[in-house]
Amino acid sequence: MKLILIAAHDPNMVIGKNGELPWHYSEDLKFFKRTTMGYPILMGRVVFEELNEKPLPGRENVVLSRSKRYEQVKTFSSITDAIEYLKSNDKVFVIGGGKVYEQTIDLADELVITQIKKAHDGDTYMIDYRKDIGMEWEEVWREDHPEFAFVRYKRISKNQAP
Ligand SMILES: NC(=O)c1ccc[n+]([C@@H]2O[C@H](COP(=O)([O-])OP(=O)(O)OC[C@H]3O[C@@H](n4cnc5c(N)ncnc54)[C@H](OP(=O)(O)O)[C@@H]3O)[C@@H](O)[C@H]2O)c1
Fold it and tell me: In angstroms, what is the span from residue 43 Cα to ligand 1's centroid?
């Protein structure tokens, strides 16, 4: 199973404000939809609340929470249990938020990132993986747009080191 983090961040690694996205770029929402469609998505309870507790269609929605259980989605109280449940899938997308990215980035095989060019106010941040580019992460694809860039990074395999 490939674990892929998908996230959008601004130049300061801001990803959220008041439990929501700080921006609205419809092209980015479309990119998110076509990238994740058909694959399971793993998210924190705050993100699921942001979705009004309605699963995103066409994808198995899996939620992490120690305080809540939902009838409409599988809920796990640990990342290990969620990953055990999801392990037979080819790909699983971690869709946030900050707390969940923080705990899964070391397990991730790939990062699918929207780098927003303009700085925004926020209260939730993603871990800054950019310091590890060239050591842990290799850029394998980039598509530039005026307001953001879509970028994919793959984990540099340990065997690849000289
Ligand atoms: N820009 C982006 O790409 C992006 C993507 C997603 C989200 N966001 C933003 O990020 C913000 C939300 O992020 P957040 O960090 O506040 O919350 P979050 O990561 O969505 O959810 C945190 C909650 O998930 C549960 N959880 C986390 N780790 C767990 C574990 N190991 N085991 C069991 N449960 C676990 C806990 O729920 P309980 O408290 O119920 O135990 C925890 O309080 C929002 O502003 C959202 O818009 C941005």
Answer: 7
